[in-house]
Input
Amino acid sequence: MNKIYGSYSLFIGAALSVSILVTGATAGAQAKIKEVPAQMTGSLDSQELYVHYCAVCHGADAKGAGPAASALKKQPGDLTLLSRRNGGKFPALAVQMTIKGANGIVAHGTREMPMWGSIFSDMGRDQTMGDMRVMALLKYIEQIQAK
Output
């Protein structure tokens, strides 16, 4: 079992801790999300960070179909197609700004994606560690681009 899917159950229990906790949806009812405090992971491993903080919405395969996706107003983007949608070049700065929450892009209403830059910095009380986590996520997303 690969690392993402092997950790999938772990992130369902622990990584939902950031912004999305999907509560049971009964027949005909839409899933609801509950915001809870982020739990810090001591890792700077890019894939582990992705699984812990992003896969709940974007999915283990990063295609936008995580377990919380149906509870969101706007479907999370397919992170594997960013380069393809940008003329074959990975939009590193735009991705970095999106992760940090600095780009202010809001499609409809409020921004549902957590502003990870400030969350990461607040968790460790250290801006440098927050920036390192953002850069690790950026590098992971760059690595998973569809060829």
Observations:
- The two ends are 23 Å apart (CA to CA).
